[in-house]
Amino acid sequence: MQVGKASIKFEEPPIIESMASVVGKKEGEGPLGKLFDVVEQDDMFGAETWEKAESALQKQTADLAIEKGDIRKKDIRYLFAGDLLGQLIATSFGTVDLEIPLFGLFGACSTMGEALNLGAMTVAAGYADKVLAMASSHFATAEKQFRFPLGYGSQRPLSSSWTVTGCGCVVLSKHRKDGIAAITGITTGKMVDMGIKDSMNMGAAMAPAAFHTIQQNFEDFHVDESYYDKIITGDLGEVGRSILLDFMRNKGHNLDSVHTDCGLEIYDPQSQDTHAGGSGCGCSASTLCSYILPKVKDGTWKRVLFIPTGSLLSTISFNEGESIPGIAHAVVIEHIG
């Protein structure tokens, strides 16, 4: 099942059996607002702190994905999940009541891609019949940890993105003849560091990693952009998308008509002041479960390359003047039928 340098082509593709998306008020006011399962009007999610709010967001989304699939919680063997916070506290505190064995993941905003990579491999190899793959982010927790306290009122540059308050969760299953979509292949990304140090320009930091992973996918599977109905990156935003398209064009690939980005789909640039677009683990995760998978299920898109992107910085590395490595993990998602 190994293909090329960094990819796997599944002989018996894992099936996405169920999915759920829960987002905050701002996301519900965007172009995808009517597609999310739940739009919470209270960004505190009834909790006392922002961090507890993100934990509540994860628990609600996981419960909903399980409920929508009419699945017994005890039949789910593993949970692959993560968030942006130090020591994954949104995930570790938010999922404790699920009582499902947990692999806590940190891939920054690429975490949903990492979860799908690992979950699909686990199911395909026979180590589990069903697993959950999930990722979340929250605007307030991310701003508090990585930038400035919300009350500070700092001015954001136009290259900055808006961290999505949202969560997406899917159930991956082995023994199913039907379902929402199939994961037929994956390409696991490597860290790519181009020396970017501007934490307010995540698109520039992540675009080289997206370029490398897409190129690796093309090489490993011996395909090009025409093989996919849509190539969808995670949260490059307007700045990162422009860089990615330039990089691909220099390699002889024109992605202009086939590419879109979750960070551009989730907010309306005209009516919502998000500058470069959306970001955060919950950006690609919630967009996948509300917008992308339904289009694959109904056959609008027969084959999609989904590539969540992440910038691997921390408060410590940034304060010490380190550059920001990027990473991107690709998932080949296909229509069933």
Short description:
This protein has 337 residues and is of the alpha/beta class. The protein has helices at 25-28, 50-68, 89-94, 111-124, 139-146, 202-221, 237-250, 262-265, 281-297, 315-319; strands at 2-3, 7-9, 15-23, 38-39, 78-82, 102-105, 130-137, 162-163, 166-173, 181-187, 230-233, 259-261, 278-279, 303-307, 309-311, 326-328, 330-334.
How many discrete domains? Answer: 2
Query: Structural class from helices and strands?
Result: alpha/beta
**Do you know the CATH topology of the largest domain?**
Peroxisomal Thiolase, Chain A, domain 1
Compute the average pLDDT.
Answer: 92
Strand residue content:
15-25%
CATH superfamily of the largest domain: Stage V sporulation protein AD
What radius of gyration results from the CA coordinates? 18 Å
The helix tally amounts to: 10
Span from first to last CA? 22 Å
Can you give the helix content as a percent range?
25-40%
Largest sheet: 13 strands, mixed
Question: What are the segments in which pLDDT stays under 50 over at least 5 consecutive residues?
Answer: none
CATH architecture of the largest domain: 3-Layer(aba) Sandwich
Task: Provide the CATH top-level class of the largest domain.
Answer: Alpha Beta
Q: How many beta strands in the DSSP annotation?
A: 17
Order of helices and strands: EEEHEHEHEHEHEEEHEHEHEHEEHEE
Q: What is the general shape? A: globular
